[in-house]
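For the sake of transparency, this paper describes our internal protein records without simplification. The tokens are whole numbers drawn from a learned vocabulary of local backbone shapes. One such record is reproduced below, unchanged from the form in which we store it.

. . .
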Amino acid sequence: MRKTLSLLGALGTLAGLAACNTTTEQKAAAGAVGGAVVAGPVGAAVGGAAGAVAGHVQENPPPK
């Protein structure tokens, strides 16, 4: 249980770091690299997806 919570916290932090880049591609790449460091290939996929979503949302904000 502790390991799972640690990984979730680390992935959340990495997703936040992915938001520091300027383009969707940069955010996806940063998320993938960070995720790979934490959880290997699965983490790379999750981090890349989180970075891509963060980039897409920032470039195309939802209507209010």
Remarks:
- Residues 15 and 50 are 6 Å apart (CA to CA).
- DSSP finds two helices and no strands in the chain.
- The mean pLDDT is 78.
- The longest helix spans residues 24-59.
